Amino acid sequence: MSYHVNEKGFYGKFGGAYVPEMLYPNVEELRQNYLRIMQEPDFQEELQLLLKDYVGRPTPLYFAPRLSEKYKTKVYLKREDLNHTGAHKINNTIGQVLLAKRLGKKRIIAETGAGQHGVATATVCALMGLECIVYMGEVDIERQAPNVARMKMLGAKVVPATSGSKTLKDATNEAIRDWINNPENTYYIIGSVVGPHPYPDMVARFQAVISEEMRAQLLEKEGTELPNYVVACVGGGSNAAGAFYHFLDEPEVKLVAVEAAGKGIDSGESAATSILGRDGIIHGSRTLLMQTEDGQVTEPYSISAGLDYPGVGPLHAHLFESKRARFENATDEEALQAVLELTRLEGIIPALETAHALAVLKRLGAKPNETVIVNLSGRGDKDLSTYLKHFHFDEQ
Amino acid sequence: MNNRIKSLFAQNQKGLLSVYFTAGFPNLDDTETIILELEKNGVDLIEVGMPFSDPLADGPTIQASSTVALQNGMTIPKLFEQLHDIRQKTQIPLVLMGYLNPVMQYGVERFCQKASEIGIDGIILPDMPLQVYIDEFKELFEKYNLSKVFLITPQTPEARIREIDSHTNGFIYMVSSASTTGKTIGLAEQSQAYFQRVAGMQLQNPGVIGFGIHDKETFSAACNHASGAIIGSAFVKALQQEGSLEQNISTFIQSIKN
Ligand SMILES: Cc1ncc(COP(=O)(O)O)c(C=O)c1O
């Protein structure tokens, strides 16, 4: 079984490029060029230097002693929260902006949910002197205000998406419409392993640095490159794709993808796509999709803006169907508890998205001599007001 | 292959008026009335829009009409039910237009079979890729005698236009400029060059220009370069005016034709 994209752009039956003809030339230009450009020595040189000196890579693989003690297994945290801008998202935006420059594009657009991808895009646009427009759902603009402020400070224009549930899906719709209307000068930096081929593969390759480092770092610490478990949260699936990438063909490594259950799988307010979704098409990709019987996309829900998405990347749909990855989910409440736990046990305040991955440590089933790597995708600064309110720290 | 689209273009080379509307808008059961009134007012071809929750290629007007139509309860089975006896009332060429996901959930073969039984002549699914059509669905569409209409844009390379032309029978939907539906900037000079380029290619299928056509002037301009033109958003807007459906349709179509 192959877990990599085939020459037609599919992972098993998932993936492809289901785009209207208006987008065909853009997507085709990218498809024909991305691998070639990514393999050019001067591209790699520029990318590696920026990842090291600007982003701050490699990020540490931290052995978490008190978390390990609590869950009676060896827990390591891959510290993507220590990247510049505070999440894994910048691994991808640095790569894509270098690609955009080589394709001669002057105007950058992006969608964002939690605002981390928006901030990471605004950041690289400031760095490269490019115009930046970020689409963000109205609901997310409200609940992730600190990131909206950061994007504005960085010179990006933040455009509210006001249709549908006013969250990530709708922001993505607006970004795609912008691209249809500006096909020649504009590059669309997608923030996750979603969208038409070649985006899922390209974003996964840019995020793959996460698992590449994990292997080398674990070898140093444990004498083996292979952990027993790799755990990551899944919105569109980019941090998980990066954390899984170099373990996909190592069957003894258990890959655990954690989706947002919202208020509970059966509550009608959830974003657990693998359980609630069916084979369908969203944002140019065939994948698992939450939808009605008639094929209308349903509005997902999660407290975490970055996981509040009715689809999942086609790679993950394939990992789910082929059973290569185990799919778990965590509710809003479990995620919030995991935030407080990590904060108080290890002195690290994680993002709400990341907390979903931490929340499944209790039911992972890892043994005391086994190693678990949790991908700590981002830090919690953007979520502080939610945390203060939930834990009533604002009243003390 | 012989269907109403073929006959229409065989008889008329110029000035064909095609109108799009979203089924289920403004009211769930307006579908038949709109079709019959359009025909009465001299429209040549009708595109019946199947509403989708996330219409990526559409601007605000058709997005909004789709949202209302879905709230009204429009679905593919409902639409087929409404169109069940339509061929006893009109022979105007009918094309169903929508996004792939609802059709895929209904079942593509079942969809083609049902559409063909009713007497639908063509299908437009902008997000069904040409290659997927060729590999998986072309045989089905041919079996059920349905024209599969593809879009081209000013950015579509000549070789791809020729490939599309070779896999289509009916007409080619020439998107006037790089945009979502409903932009009313008129037809830019670049568009004219593109229309002329396509006209010069001597394609086997006639071309019909759509996107941005919203009044008599833009309609006539488009007709100078192709067999006809398609009006969508402007018509959907006209349906929202005060007054009866019949009146709104007649006022709008007459404003285009006279
Ligand atoms: C910190 C963090 N983790 C995870 C995600 C989810 O995205 P993905 O599944 O693409 O990693 C986001 C998205 O905004 C995020 O900000």
UniProtKB/TrEMBL annotation, chain A:
Alphabetized SUPFAM superfamilies for the sequence: Tryptophan synthase beta subunit-like PLP-dependent enzymes
Keywords assigned: Amino-acid biosynthesis, Aromatic amino acid biosynthesis, Lyase, Pyridoxal phosphate, Tryptophan biosynthesis
Record bears the keyword Lyase: yes
EC number: 4.2.1.20
Catalytic activity of the protein: (1S,2R)-1-C-(indol-3-yl)glycerol 3-phosphate + L-serine = D-glyceraldehyde 3-phosphate + L-tryptophan + H2O
Enzyme class, first EC level, given as a word: lyase
GO molecular function per UniProt: tryptophan synthase activity
Domain Tryptophan synthase beta chain-like PALP residue range list: 56-378
UniProt keyword Amino-acid biosynthesis present: yes
Modified residues (N6-(pyridoxal phosphate)lysine): 89
Cofactor(s) listed: pyridoxal 5'-phosphate
PANTHER family in alphabetical order: TRYPTOPHAN SYNTHASE, TRYPTOPHAN SYNTHASE-RELATED
NCBIfam families, per database record: trpB
Assigned protein family: Belongs to the TrpB family.
HAMAP family: Trp_synth_beta (MF_00133)
Subunit details: Tetramer of two alpha and two beta chains.
Protein name: Tryptophan synthase beta chain
Automatic annotation (TrEMBL), chain B:
Pfam name, any one: Trp_syntA
Reaction(s) catalysed by this chain's protein: (1S,2R)-1-C-(indol-3-yl)glycerol 3-phosphate + L-serine = D-glyceraldehyde 3-phosphate + L-tryptophan + H2O
Class in the EC hierarchy, top level: lyase
Entry annotated with the keyword Amino-acid biosynthesis: yes
Keywords: Amino-acid biosynthesis, Aromatic amino acid biosynthesis, Lyase, Tryptophan biosynthesis
A molecular function (GO) term: tryptophan synthase activity
Pathway(s) it belongs to: Amino-acid biosynthesis; L-tryptophan biosynthesis; L-tryptophan from chorismate: step 5/5
Gene3D superfamilies documented for this protein: Aldolase class I
Positions annotated as active site in the UniProt record: 47, 58
EC number annotated for this UniProt entry: 4.2.1.20
Keyword Metal-binding annotated: no
InterPro entries for the chain: Aldolase_TIM, RibuloseP-bd_barrel, Trp_synthase_alpha_AS, Trp_synthase_suA
Assembly description: Tetramer of two alpha and two beta chains.
UniProt record similarity statement: Belongs to the TrpA family.
Role, per record: The alpha subunit is responsible for the aldol cleavage of indoleglycerol phosphate to indole and glyceraldehyde 3-phosphate.
Protein's UniProt name: Tryptophan synthase alpha chain
